[in-house]
Amino acid sequence: MRGMGKLRRVGLAPGILLDEPQPLAAQMQLMHYRKDSADGVLPASIQAAQALIAASKEGVTWLHIQGLPDKTVLEDMGARFGLHHLLLEDIQSRDQRPKLEEYIEHIFVVLVVPRWQDGEVVLEQMSLLLSENYVLSIHDSCHDITGILRERLAQPSSRLRIHSADFLFYTLMDLIIDQIYPLLERFGTTIDALEERLVVKPDRNALPDIQQAKRTLNRLRRELWPTREVISHLIRGVQNEPLLEAGLKPYLNDLYDHTISIMDMLETYRDTVAGLIDIHLSSVSNRLNEIMRTLTVISTLFIPLTFISGVYGMNFGSSSDSPFAMPELRMYFGYPIILGLMLSVAVGMLFFFKRKGWIFTQDRPKPPFDGAPR
């Protein structure tokens, strides 16, 4: 779980690696390519990658680790490639925000890979390391997203082959950012369904779903916002300029535009979710108003009926000689006449309410405005 790494490291010295079992064993993929060829190396290992880098005077070597490397693997990697102990700690902690760090011979980038799983957003970490003629990538997940790059490298016409290691470094960042678009589109579909649910049939269970969507969007924004700063830093330039060719800048600019687009989508969805709370409250209020209106109509209908029945329930009419006796009480059809009167009053009131538009009303769609004067 993201965020637990810092808790386990409380009180430890910086750069200390934890010796603990990893739930997901690390799997390695090793490739070496040049303009005219691209070959995978089996068995893939850190030692094989080091030997291949030392023996190859041209081409690019790419070592990808899928899963969670343990302490032994990270220490071996650090010793063979000369990696800083703080860099290794960042790889193992798995709770880093997107960031860029510069070392003498390396550029190290941490990015967040969001993924949709079982109706929730899962945030994973991918660490990228660029050196002169090789790239290391570590993805702490069982879902490999780099297979498409290996397929591209296998094609003779692949543009990846004619570029140096920095272009592979950029391509991996572009692949990570591309994972965000389908997730946001799927999340947008969920928000649309929630909005329709609030409008058509509001219920009390919708509010927890709105709050969950709001928390997810806030979390995505917090984790993805620094990605734009990482790309901006690469565009402005790093101290280790030889690792990034000048021709890479247009691609980085395009990548920066993608991050801006993602942030715009996130802000739009956040505004929409914030509006859903108002829609929910309005729907609940309208529902309550409909219930109160129905109860009011029923109560109003029974007011005159209660008055009539109350008047004739006083039974002042037992003396036939009294001039104030109720004559209706001695009528042969008095009882059905009074019932008919009460029914007529009720029907008349219903007709009056209907004519006023207080009951039996439906919202009719307004005709589209065509701009013509009426």
Mean residue pLDDT: 83
Q: What topology, given as strand order, has the largest sheet?
A: 2-1-3-7-6-5-4
Instruction: Give the DSSP E fraction (strand runs of 2 or more residues).
Output: 5-15%
What is the N-to-C order of secondary-structure elements (H for helix, E for strand)?
HEEHEHHEEEEHHHHHH
**Low-pLDDT sequence parts:** 364-374
What is the terminal separation in angstroms? Answer: 64 Å
- The Cα radius of gyration reads 36 Å
CATH topology of the largest domain: Beta Polymerase, domain 2
Number of helices: 10
Quick one: CATH class of the largest domain?
Alpha Beta
The second-level CATH architecture of the largest domain is 2-Layer Sandwich
Number of distinct beta strands: 7
Structural domains: how many: 2
Query: How does the helix and strand content classify structurally?
Result: alpha+beta
Major sheet size, sense and barrel closure: 7 strands, mixed
Subunit organisation of the chains: single chain
**Mass-distribution shape:** rod-shaped
Q: CATH homologous superfamily name of the largest domain? A: CorA soluble domain-like
- Helix % is 40-55%
